[in-house]
Amino acid sequence: MQLLEERIRKDGIIKEGNVLKVDRFLNHQMDIHLFEEIGKEFYRRFSDAGVNKILTIEASGIGIACITAQYFDVPVVFAKKNQTKNIAGDVFTTQVESYTHGRIYDIIVSKEFLSPNDRVLLIDDFLANGRALEGLAALVESSGATLVGAGIVIEKGFQPGGDELRKKGIHLESLAIVESMDEKTGTITFREQ
Asked: Which residues contact 78 (CB under 8 A, 6 or more apart)?
């Protein structure tokens, strides 16, 4: 997605440890006009999949998932990283390791919101090692729902997550795939799609 790649080059900041900071427009301050284009593109890529629910993980994926859901006219469910008093009853749960935060989270979704009748599209902002998506896919599998695919805004193509998930048969669509980043020069190269 050319518009996204241009925005990453303009406002993305490469930090030590292969961290791409895009908080100026994606996951802290959110550019809603860009999100609209992202949502349209995810709809274009998955419109024939029969999506009736979108699943993401808190917190950075929620805004993107909500805008995308408007194009599908479906609800968004987000996996919570902490059990709260608001979630009563049975839950689906699994563990995920966050590359960015360097810790393991228990993620949960109330059984009320995922069922065997659902055709679920996963949406997230980043894909590096793929642990968050693996966790979301495990929740979908536990529920008996059908995983129709995963939409990622930015994939780090030089890390193994995307390739591993594709080998598992997940229909994965990334809008921008970063092939390499150079912290010293600020250069970012993208994979041709």
From this structure: 55, 56, 57, 58, 61, 62, 65, 109
What does the block give as tokens for 188?
A: 């970012």
pTM of the shown model: 0.93
The backbone torsions φ and ψ at residue 87, rounded to the nearest 5 degrees and listed phi first, read: -100, 100
Q: What type of residue sits at position 189?
A: T
Cβ proximity of 102 and 111 under 8 Å: no
Question: Residue type at 193?
Answer: Q
Over the Cα atoms of the chain, what is R_g? 16
Query: Measured in whole angstroms, how far is the alpha carbon of residue 135 from the centre of its chain?
Result: 11
Residues 142, 108 contacting (CB under 8 angstroms): no
Binding residues for xanthine: 20, 27, 156
Write the pLDDT tens digit of every residue in 94-145.
888 876 667 888 889 999 999 999 999 999 999 999 999 999 999 999 999 9
Residue numbering of the annotated binding site for 5-phospho-alpha-D-ribose 1-diphosphate: 128-132
DSSP annotation of 80 reads B
Domains in the chain (CATH in brackets) are 2-190 (3.40.50.2020)
Closest CA to 20 of 137, 144, 147, 128: 128
